[in-house]
Amino acid sequence: MRPASPALLALALFACGPQGQARPAASSCEPVMFEDSPLTHCVADPARHRIFTVLDAPDGSPARSLEALAETLPQPARVAFAMNGGMFGDDGNPIGYYVENGQRRHTLNRNPGGGNFHLLPNGVFYGTGGEWHVRTTEDFAEHVTTRPEFATQSGPMLVIGGRLHPAFDADGASLKTRNGVGVDRQGRAHFVISEAPVSFGKFARYFRDELKTPDALFLDGSVSQLWDPARERMDAGPELGPLIVVERAGGSLR
């Protein structure tokens, strides 16, 4: 059996009190059922959390996994949860707009093409401080003039102004593990990952009907993974690209 990484050992120590007694850790994620499909729903609250994006491992190449992400963070025990966050190429680098720590690493992609990313409209999840938003790419290009602290572009949009993406069937035949993000009217960011293959239409309805997010963005499918330290969950699987980290407020992980 492979020995635990230093980052995961740090998480184990964080969960223990004096004399090594385990302390309960509240998770920001919970399992839910929607139309007979199992999902996990995680909430980032601006009053309690901060969000940032991560792409690279310490050697400067894309980290490509949640476990590698844990190794890059100086205080992994501060993580509330993390998730893959946006489309990427074979080398792990983003194919759309990507900002990390206020630095733009890839420009806005408005080019035509195939695949989910180009199932228009696509969109951008972005924010600065405790202000987080999802906008369509065209809306972002027209109205956002100041570079945010973090951003990731993906596609397609799931919900646009309270309406489902026009290309979605109610419950289409394409069933995949999927993850996405939406921001509600109170400013909370809702991250969802399916625990079984689910259609675009059903996945989008969960954001619209249950979470009441007027806008929501598909982050990826098939490769979708979640790190939830409080539940000792660290998904592994296909290599990833951009990563979204939600940290507990009160300091910085970077």
SSE series: HEEEHEEEEEHEEEEEHEEEE
Strand content: 25-35%
Rounded to the nearest angstrom, the radius of gyration is 17 Å
* Main sheet properties: 7 strands, antiparallel
> Which spans have pLDDT < 50 for at least 5 consecutive residues?
9-24
Question: Into how many domains do the coordinates divide?
Answer: 1
Tally of DSSP helical segments: 4
Strand order across the biggest sheet? 1-2-13-12-14-10-11
Helix content: 10-25%
User: Pairing-aware structural class of the strands and helices?
Assistant: mainly beta
What global shape is seen?
A: globular
Q: Please, what is the average pLDDT?
A: 91
What's the total number of strands?
17
Distance between the termini: 31 Å
Secondary structure layout:
Elements lengths: L5 H9 L14 E6 L2 E8 L4 E6 L11 H7 L6 E6 L13 E3 L2 E4 L16 E6 L2 E6 H7 L6 E5 L2 E4 L2 E2 L13 E6 L5 E6 L5 H11 L4 E7 L4 E3 L4 E2 L8 E6 L6
Antiparallel strand pairs: 1-2, 2-13, 3-17, 4-15, 4-17, 5-6, 5-9, 7-8, 7-9, 10-11, 10-14, 12-13, 12-14, 15-16
